[in-house]
């Protein structure tokens, strides 16, 4: 009886752009012991499994640094490159999970700088105009929630364009299936973000002229249109219905007004969510 050979883990190697590569080369020390040297050696490998070994060395190396490391341009640049690497990796790549674990385990005094670099890289991604890159960007949104307004604006833009592309591709079931998946992911990420808005933004967004409020209204309008569009998959429609309930529950207080709100203003909600706000006879009590 033959011995079954153990299947080796397949991990796609990470890569970086030429500019980031040159940055690492410029900061790498002669001894090859600083963070830039570690990352340079890592990205030059073509074996993803070996790269995991190097990624796991990031935190132990930074734990040796003191708080002055926050001002070290080498560490700042490396954190920026790490953020770019993380956002470039596929969700299915084991390297993304390992890198996420390392980033979450950074010494506390490095976290603000890491978040700043992460936000900057994500902001660049949010500016994409490539429709078929939206899914990748949406997958990365949950990793960086500090700039809610920017993220919500991207979600609103992407969902509108996905719906329009789906209309144009009527009859092309392969493309429409992918677009439906992208639409579903976008709606679910929106729901996840709105549950976090209170934690990250406090009460600053709770005014009708707040950019966050306006973007949430825009998303609410999109979800309502999706719910009423029978050409879309039932799963997408039902998820949109849940999103509507969640958004209304989050945005409108006190909760006793919600039944009146739904009864009196749902038709206005479909046309323009701002009507919902304006039709309330009494001021909202935040």
Automatic annotation (TrEMBL):
InterPro entries: tRNA_methyltransferase_THADA. This is THADA armadillo repeat containing. It comes from Gorilla gorilla gorilla.
